[in-house]
Specification:
Layout: H1 9-20, E1 35-37, H2 43-46, H3 54-62, H4 71-83, H5 89-95, H6 99-102, H7 115-129, E2 145-149, H8 153-164, E3 168-172, H9 181-184, H10 193-204, E4 209-211, H11 222-228, E5 231-234, E6 240-241, E7 254-256, H12 257-265, E8 275-279, H13 283-295, E9 309-314, H14 325-333, E10 337-340, E11 342-349, E12 355-368, E13 374-387, E14 390-393, E15 397-398, E16 427-429, H15 439-458, H16 494-499, H17 511-518, H18 532-536, E17 542-549, E18 552-556, H19 566-570, E19 576-578
Parallel strand pairs: 2-3, 2-5, 3-4, 5-16, 7-14, 8-9, 8-14, 9-10
Antiparallel strand pairs: 1-19, 6-15, 11-12, 12-13, 17-18
């Protein structure tokens, strides 16, 4: 239905007339307190970097009986709603840190809706049933061809949305398989490869052409892309790890985090010994530490302590650690030690050049820096040696743009506006090569760039941003909703995880728990047929629609409304507003 602003009189009049069944038919003067239906933006969608209609796919399952849908029909519709903005629901249901949940209005009552858990269920349902992505209705085949450089989440998202609009899309990927950091950065115990492969295949089934082991700048020049394609989307990510810049760093026994995870996730042999130190506090550092533990486990031996001694060095405290909190907890459960307020000072080697130890500097927190976190400051004279055989430096990473061989792009970070426009005519960009972020952000950037490419080629206008204000918990009747405990996903115990080190550790929710979780959604800002307005209205202004849909369960007969305000005072979700 979209957002309905009070000031949009012409559009609002049409909408009000349709929903109110004509209105004013008796010639009586209308009360200034008559109700208006105004769909509002829920905070889950407002805080989703992919722009997912979270409320939509939660409520189509929750309301399935009211809408006359079977469970299978509701789940398929939920999958299609999700696929409008995100072609990776099963993947994101496993790896997304779900910022949507941090803003969920339900958190003000008991606990946020398990949005990410439901997303995973919907994605897994789509894979299990072999559901097919669809092209946008009304779009025909286009003559223009589009090149996408990089088959990570951003590049594939852009290719997917362009293919849905009828474009022929060629995706060029320098690595042997598609997925980018989803494949080469995230360990298999967090993201099973059959899940990733299944959702990539759904994208390819729309007609996207994938060219693997094809390096732009080597196998195909950037100039050729310029010549052969109407637009180029650059999404090469940031696979180049940064070094520490300390003494002793050059030589064997030192890996960057991205290099280490790439080797491990590619199935290559990685000899790291029995003592590993990982530098950093982000997700790459935690993943590298947990993978190090797993690579050295003798699965034939069952004991409380398994695998290498793994230590994470982080120069701040746990409070400032940017990694996903649950991943940190699971690392600690797996006997990975975290040294806070500690930073590497020097790599110490023996006479043969092998790493034997690290000189570590103790730190304390000073004033906040540009990131808003307190700056780590060395404590003078407070150092110690830490035994180590392998060091993994997961401090940051950057894109390798120079390899593309384009003077237009240079050799740094790319810039882009909210629609992915790089400032260079014909080139759009998104993903980690403009700023390190989470995969759902990259997916959203790919989608918006595809929309921008489409309207630019077709000579259309970009869609205008609607009212981005979100409905808060203060606009809801929280007491109307019943207290309900949040369903928590089942994660294997640490011992079980390490006995089968590369099996998936998070098993999600059972179907029954997922269905219960969808019913915890408040449907903030959109009618879900609670019947409060219908029950409280003494003048019988509200008539039930014979074929309801989420957001449209009643029509309002404004000609009999006396402006008692009861309907909008009693609307729990904030959908009915008074003039």
């Amino acid at each position: 239905m979209g957002l309905l602003k009070k000031k949009d009189k012409k559009k609002g009049g049409k909408m009000a007339s349709r929903l109110a069944g004509g209105g004013g038919g008796s010639g009586n003067q209308l009360s200034p307190l008559r109700p208006r239906y105004v769909e509002q933006l829920p905070p889950c969608t407002g805080h989703c970097p992919s722009g997912n209609d979270v409320r939509g796919w939660l409520m189509v399952i929750s309301l399935r009986e009211k809408l006359g849908l079977s469970l299978d029909e509701a789940c398929e519709q939920a999958w299609q709603i999700e696929m409008e903005t995100n072609p990776f629901p099963s993947v994101m249901g496993r790896v997304c840190p779900h910022p949507c949940e941090g803003s969920c209005n339900r958190g003000e009552k008991d606990a946020a809706v398990g949005i990410n858990s439901v997303e995973r269920f919907i994605g897994d349902y789509g894979l299990e049933k072999g559901l097919k992505a669809t092209k946008i209705e009304g779009e025909s085949a286009k003559k223009e061809k589009i090149a996408v450089v990089g088959a990570g989440p951003s590049g594939l998202s852009c290719a997917y949305q362009l293919a849905r609009r009828g474009y022929e899309v060629d995706v060029f990927e320098g690595l042997p398989k598609a997925g980018g950091m989803l494949r080469y950065g995230i360990p298999v115990y967090r993201l099973p490869r059959e899940v990733l492969d299944g959702e990539i295949q759904a994208i390819l089934d729309l007609g996207v052409n994938l060219h693997l082991d094809t390096k732009i700048g080597k196998d195909v020049t950037f100039e050729k892309l310029r010549k052969d394609y109407a637009a180029i989307y650059v999404a090469i990510g940031a696979h180049q790890g940064k070094t520490l810049g300390i003494d002793g760093e050059d030589g064997p026994g030192i890996w960057t985090g991205t290099e280490f995870l790439n080797h491990a996730n590619s199935g290559k042999k990685v000899d790291i010994g029995d003592n590993v130190v990982v530098i950093g506090g982000g997700d790459t550092a935690v993943d590298a530490a947990r993978v190090s533990k797993r690579l050295t486990i003798d699965t034939a031996t069952v004991s409380k302590k398994m695998g290498a001694e793994v230590t994470i060095l982080y120069r701040r405290t746990r409070t400032e650690m940017p990694a996903i909190d649950r991943e940190i907890e699971e690392a600690i459960e797996e006997d990975i030690h975290i040294e806070y307020l500690a930073a590497p000072l020097e790599i110490l080697r023996d006479d043969d050049g092998k790493v034997r130890a690290m000189l570590v500097q103790r730190m304390e927190l000073g004033e906040p820096d540009d990131s808003g976190r307190r700056r780590p400051v060395p404590i003078k004279g407070d150092t110690y040696e830490l035994p180590v055989e392998t060091v993994v430096t997961a401090v940051s990473q950057k894109p390798a743009l120079a390899a593309l061989g384009s003077e237009e792009l240079g050799d740094g970070w790319l810039n882009a506006d909210e629609w992915g426009r790089s400032g260079v005519d014909g080139i759009w960009t998104g993903g980690d090569n403009i700023n390190l972020g989470i995969a759902t952000t990259s997916i959203g950037q790919g989608r918006k760039a595809a929309e921008s490419i489409h309207v630019t080629i077709q000579g259309l206008d970009l869609p205008r941003n609607g009212d981005t204000s979100m409905i808060g918990h203060d606009k809801l009747k929280l007491d109307w909703y019943e207290q309900q405990e949040r369903a928590e996903r089942f994660v294997k115990e640490a011992q079980d995880r390490l006995e089968k080190p590369f099996d998936e550790v998070d098993l999600g929710l059972e179907a029954e728990a997922v269905l219960a979780e969808t019913k915890r959604c408040f449907s903030c800002g959109k009618c879900f047929g609670c019947e409060n307005c219908w029950m409280y209205c003494q003048n019988n202004c509200f008539a039930k629609l014979p074929e309801p849909s989420h957001g449209q369960f009643y029509k309002v007969k404004l000609e009999v409304c006396d402006g008692c305000k009861k309907c909008w005072e009693e609307c729990p979700c904030g959908f009915i507003l008074g003039e």
